[in-house]
């Protein structure tokens, strides 16, 4: 059990505040005798990224009444929080970031809303500001908060019409994971707390509002939502824009701007088959509908698994289904993540590692073992490259976040190392036993938020001890708590890459011209392999030009190939790509596809060029992307490293 300095400091801060009841709030913080209450999930979880006194009182339902104002770029309205008291008390502490709180009231014994005192605490750079509400009596059941968002909330992006596909209508969307829900709703922003929610949302005519919930249109301007399954705050999501819907089948479909709808429907036509495959292997899909929302290109992630409605970047619409593993991934979260949820952000690998594993199993069932193995092999190589750069502590699955924002510790480790760990177990125990284990794990912890420790106990009981002498506790320990990759790992290795590697080598050895290589029938993944494993630092401009002339990488419409190629070009100081790269950096905002390229530019003599491109593109990026790039370009030009 970790007890960080931050928790201690925030306890101390709470004690300084004027209400007597703070003693209670402080008592409820994770500080003592946790073992004795370990049977109650909330009490056993220490999340130091929330101010909330959730171990004492937790929200079980959120009722939102919001207006989406595109002129003001503001969400405003009321939220009613329904409370469960685990221990009597009169204080409720919530998370906020940059919210304006107008008033707070409680439902009193007469059934009336009665104003109650509240205060916003000192702003913490990572956590935001605690909203402390003081009730005159114990065990208040409902509290209502009237509030509005600020000009640039970390969890919302407001887009002008020019930043959309159709150019006629504005757009807005939320991205709450990890700790950004607090920037648009005052709540208990910890994945340890689960709640149902409902919402009534108004906006201007011509716009559609969607949320991660069941949707009913009430009028041209008003939409109602209900999410009857209890979910963590980071899965509450909203978007509004000039959207249309196209069904894929009875229970799944696509929301997109009209200009994108047909292309997206064609690209993601296999979604219903993916749902069927996952449900067959891992148990029923428990969320009703599964729809996809295609966002504008500034969406900062590839995808986000908002329940019933995954948010998807348009950058994976390649025209040939080559990048649809993203859909398998977000869908897989319907089991790993949304059904069984990481209780704290230290446990993110429970979400992402399991999801990356399940994603690849879906890909294997749908498109065959070759494709699945190619994707595993590519991710593995990317992980190796990333591990070479990462602080050793961040290579641990059960990561110690210290005082950091989880976004700042984000890496491929929880994803790919997590997947490798689960593949290791699969290989050791055999598919049948392992599949049964995974399915029973999802059933056992369904609609719960769990820690790595709870996973381990379940693993020990249901796999290690059930089939003894196959995998040891110490091997599991090496995977979960150890740094880097275990020495006993068997890396994935796709035979479909053998020929690619051979041809690359022939070219590097001067035995064949690029134009003479036999690349017929290569898939996108084989091209990625061809580029990714090229030498760094010592290819000549003439060699890169030869590749580009033969294969026309610069300006390619496949965003993964573009990313791979620009990375290779910059690593080898082939700066003829800059004009095309400028377009890539300006037109998309997906962090994984742009931030590493900015990084390479920022440490070259093209720092100033990159800064200029960034400053011109900045207003089109998501606030979270802006935040990382602002830091990168905050100082005066650094000494160029070659
Ligand atoms: N849940 C994640 C996105 C996320 C993780 C947001 C952590 C904030 C904090 C989503 O499911 C995801 O993993 N997206 C990946 C997809 C890829 C690995 C297939 C992405 O956006 O690149
Ligand atoms: Zn994910």
From TrEMBL:
Keywords: Cytoplasm, Hydrolase, Metal-binding, Metalloprotease, Protease, Signal, Zinc. Its EC number is 3.4.11.2. Binds 1 zinc ion per subunit. Its cofactor is Zn(2+). It is found in: Cytoplasm. One of its GO terms (molecular function) is metallopeptidase activity. The keyword Protease applies. Its main location: cytoplasm. Zn(2+) binds at residues 329, 333, 352. Residues 494-633 form the Peptidase M1 leukotriene A4 hydrolase/aminopeptidase C-terminal domain. One of its GO terms (biological process) is proteolysis. The active site is at residues 330, 415. Residues 1-25 form the signal peptide. One of its GO terms (cellular component) is cytoplasm. Belongs to the peptidase M1 family. This is Aminopeptidase N. It comes from Shewanella oneidensis (strain ATCC 700550 / JCM 31522 / CIP 106686 / LMG 19005 / NCIMB 14063 / MR-1).
């Amino acid at each position: 059990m970790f007890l960080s300095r931050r928790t201690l400091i925030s306890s101390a801060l709470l004690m300084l505040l004027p209400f007597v009841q703070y003693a209670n709030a402080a008592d409820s913080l994770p500080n003592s005798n946790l073992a004795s209450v370990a049977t109650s999930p909330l009490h056993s979880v220490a999340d130091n990224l929330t101010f909330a006194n959730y171990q004492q009182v937790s929200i079980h339902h959120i009722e939102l009444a919001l207006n989406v104002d595109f002129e003001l770029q503001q969400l405003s309205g009321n939220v009613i929080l329904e409370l469960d008291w685990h221990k009597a008390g009169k204080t409720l502490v919530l998370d906020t970031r940059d919210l304006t709180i107008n008033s707070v009231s409680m439902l009193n014994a007469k059934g009336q809303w009665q104003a109650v005192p509240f205060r916003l605490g000192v702003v913490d750079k990572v956590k935001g500001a605690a909203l402390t509400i003081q009730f005159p009596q114990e065990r208040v059941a409902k509290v209502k908060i009237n509030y509005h968002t600020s000009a640039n909330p970390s969890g919302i992006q407001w887009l002008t019409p020019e930043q959309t596909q159709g150019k006629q209508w504005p757009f807005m969307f939320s991205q709450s994971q990890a700790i950004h829900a607090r920037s648009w709703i005052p709540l208990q922003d910890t994945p340890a707390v689960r709640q149902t929610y409902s919402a009534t949302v108004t906006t201007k005519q011509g716009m559609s509002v969607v949320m991660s919930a069941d949707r009913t249109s009430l009028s041209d301007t008003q939409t109602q939502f209900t999410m009857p399954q209890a979910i963590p705050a980071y899965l509450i999501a909203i978007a509004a824009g000039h959207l249309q819907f196209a069904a894929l089948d009875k229970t799944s479909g696509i929301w997109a701007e009209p200009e994108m709808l047909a292309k997206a429907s064609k690209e993601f036509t296999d979604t219903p088959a993916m749902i069927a495959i996952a449900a067959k292997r891992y148990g029923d899909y428990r969320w009703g509908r599964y729809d996809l929302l295609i966002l504008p290109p500034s969406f900062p992630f590839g995808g986000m698994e908002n329940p019933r409605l995954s948010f998807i970047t348009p950058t994976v619409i390649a025209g040939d289904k080559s990048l649809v593993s993203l859909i398998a991934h977000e869908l897989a979260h319907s089991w790993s993540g949304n059904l069984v949820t990481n209780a704290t952000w230290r446990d993110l690998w429970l979400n992402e590692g399991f999801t990356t594993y399940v994603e690849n199993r879906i890909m294997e069932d749908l498109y065959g073992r070759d494709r699945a193995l190619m994707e595993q092999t590519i991710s593995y190589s990317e992980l190796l490259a990333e591990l070479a750069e990462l602080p050793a502590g961040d290579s641990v699955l059960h990561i110690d976040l210290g005082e950091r924002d989880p976004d700042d510790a984000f890496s491929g480790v929880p994803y790919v190392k997590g997947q490798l760990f689960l593949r290791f177990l699969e290989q050791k125990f055999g598919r049948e036993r392992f599949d049964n284990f995974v399915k029973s794990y999802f059933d056992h912890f369904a609609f719960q938020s769990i820690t790595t420790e709870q996973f381990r106990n379940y693993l020990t009981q249901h796999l290690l001890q059930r089939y003894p002498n196959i995998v040891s506790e110490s091997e599991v320990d090496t995977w979960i708590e150890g740094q880097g990759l275990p020495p006993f790992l068997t890396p994935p290795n796709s035979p479909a890459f053998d020929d690619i590697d051979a041809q690359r080598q022939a070219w590097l050895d001067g035995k064949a011209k690029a134009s003479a290589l036999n690349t017929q029938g290569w898939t996108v993944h084989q091209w990625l392999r061809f580029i990714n494993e090229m030498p760094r630092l010592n290819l000549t401009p003439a060699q890169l030009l030869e590749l580009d002339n033969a294969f026309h990488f610069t300006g390619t419409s496949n965003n993964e190939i573009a990313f791979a190629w620009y990375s290779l070009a910059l690593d080898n100081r082939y700066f003829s790509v800059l004009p095309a790269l400028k377009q890539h950096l300006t037109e998309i905002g997906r962090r994984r596809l742009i931030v590493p390229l900015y990084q390479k530019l920022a440490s070259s003599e093209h720092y100033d060029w990159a800064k200029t491109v960034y400053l011109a593109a900045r207003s089109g990026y998501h606030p979270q992307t802006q935040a990382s790039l602002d830091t990168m370009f905050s100082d005066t030009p650094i000494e160029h490293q070659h």
